[in-house]
Amino acid sequence: MKRFLSMLLLGVVVLTHACALQAGAIDDAVKRGTLKVGTNPTYIPFEMTNKRGEIIGFEIDLLREMSRALGVKLELVSSSYAELLPGLLANKFDLIASGMTLTQQRNLRLNFSDAFIVVGQTLLIPLALGGKVQGFEDLNEAGYRIAAKAGTTGEIVARKMMGAAQLSTYANEEEGVRAVLEGKADAFVHDAPYNLVAVNKLGDGKLLCLDQPFTYEPLAFGLKKGDHDSLNWINHFLHQIAEDGTYDRIHDQWFKASDWLAEID
Questions:
Q1: Backbone angles phi, psi at 210, to 5 degrees
Q2: 121-215 in CATH: which number?
Q3: Alpha helices in the chain (DSSP H)
Q4: 111 Cβ neighbours under 8 A, 6+ residues apart
Q5: Alpha-carbon distance 132 to 143, whole Å?
Q6: Closest to 99 (Cα-Cα) out of 55, 148, 149, 152
Q7: DSSP string of 112-165?
Q8: pLDDT in tens, 112-138
Q9: What count of Cα atoms within 13 Å lies in the side-chain half-sphere of residue 100?
Q10: C-alpha angle with apex 173: 152 to 256, nearest 5 degrees?
Q11: Residue limits of CATH 3.40.190.10 in the chain
Q12: Rg value, the chain, Cα
């Protein structure tokens, strides 16, 4: 009898644990009435802060549409890029939405949704190097200095593909661009959408964007490992907005229009 009761108790514990696993981020958001999202708002035009201190951008508008579909409010939790994964694991937010590339290494620690856009790394260089540097291969020499945002695939790519050069990392994208402008670096490596805006917004006519991407990088939403129900819901949401025209409307607002530039510093 004791053995039977022990087995029965073990079964209850296992069943309770399994049920707890099924209550994922999306279910929690619906019960709470708020979708809490961790983001590092420095990545133009995906997530950034406007002159009123509000976080806006392409990815933010996708999240607003997601929140409407869930029937909940959107709460954005600003974080440094390095603290996004620890914050997710510490339950500070439900998911990560911060222009994060789905890499095999990150996928070992996170579950990722389907990609909502594909980008690639490009380079910002001084005008003086325009005739000498045609691509990343030309920078793979000891005499060159590369700038990248810490913790991003730009840093990974710089170490892997321009390993002979000297690499310096910065807390945010603007600091990396400033390093090139101030002569502290010969190139800033980052995603194409950001660099295409930064060359005009921050470049002051002194920078050249080598705008042909040389990597393949799908961006996606990050969730805790094992949260398959939330992944299922988000992937269906992405498919729905892709088919009903919502995605194209939001995309064009940020990638084809430019009036939003007046909203940011």
A1: -85, 90
A2: 3.40.190.10
A3: 2-22, 25-32, 58-70, 84-89, 104-107, 153-161, 173-181, 192-201, 228-243, 246-255
A4: 222, 223, 224, 225, 226, 227, 228, 231
A5: 13
A6: 152
A7: E---SEEE-EEEEEEGGGTTT--SGGGG-STT-EEEEETTSHHHHHHHHHSTTS
A8: 999 999 999 999 999 999 999 999 999
A9: 30
A10: 100
A11: 27-118+218-263, 121-215
A12: 21
Q: Render pLDDT for 204-223 as a digit per residue (tens, 0 to 9).
A: 999 999 999 999 999 999 99
- Structure tokens that stand for 128 in this block: 């003086």
- DSSP string of 71-88, one letter each residue: T-EEEEEE--GGGHHHHH
Query: 241, 59 in Cβ contact below 8 A?
Result: no
- Looking at the domain that runs over 27-118+218-263, which CATH code has it been given? 3.40.190.10
User: Which two structure tokens, joined as six digits, stand for 120?
Assistant: 């690639």
